[in-house]
Design goal:
Distance between the termini: 50 Å
Oligomer: single chain
CATH superfamily of one domain: Tetratricopeptide repeat domain
Shape: globular
Largest sheet: none
């Protein structure tokens, strides 16, 4: 007999995709609302390790957004980063989209910490993963914009312009 209180993981994963859209657009209120809904549902979904990892990645991305937009609201970002590394085993055993997000969010974290060489290495790993799964043009454009941004910050004008053009 199937427990009626268990939610199919694909429905929660779809809601998580909407949460990610809110995160990318810096819609704090909407992201908070989606996070709250997903957090309630994640406790009662049918078991799926990939969805749980995706949730952990989005939780970290949520904290990165708050750290960027409301620095006083997101404390201990390093602690959250270490938790993510532990949950994902440093990105090992991930593949496709999850591996891409791990590298992308880790690069964003290191960039925020002004650890530019670490950030660049993670961005390069993310770029290697970007073509390993079906991603839309907007996802690719946002990624290349982030690469352009880090090269601009490093005063590598030609690389920055190259990736800006890609974006």
């Amino acid at each position: 007999m199937v427990d009626k209180s268990v939610i199919p993981y694909d429905l929660v994963a779809t809601k998580m995709n909407y949460w990610y859209v809110a995160l990318k657009n810096d819609w704090v209120d909407k992201a908070e609302k989606m996070r709250s809904e997903v957090k309630q549902e994640i406790a009662i979904i049918e078991e799926n390790q990939d969805v749980l990892i995706y949730f952990s990645l989005l939780e970290f991305r949520h904290k990165l957004m708050l750290d960027y937009l409301c620095p006083e609201a997101a404390k201990d970002i390093r602690v959250h980063y270490e938790e993510l590394r532990e949950k994902t085993k440093g990105g090992k055993n991930l593949n496709g989209m999850l591996e891409y997000y791990y590298y992308l969010f880790t690069a964003m974290y290191h960039f925020r910490q002004k650890e530019l060489l670490h950030a660049l290495a993670y961005y390069q790993n993310a770029e290697n993963q970007l073509n390993s799964f079906e991603s839309d043009e907007i996802e690719k454009a946002e990624f290349y914009f982030k690469l352009s941004e880090i090269y601009f910050y490093m005063k590598q004008t030609y690389f920055s312009m190259y990736y800006a053009n890609h974006a």
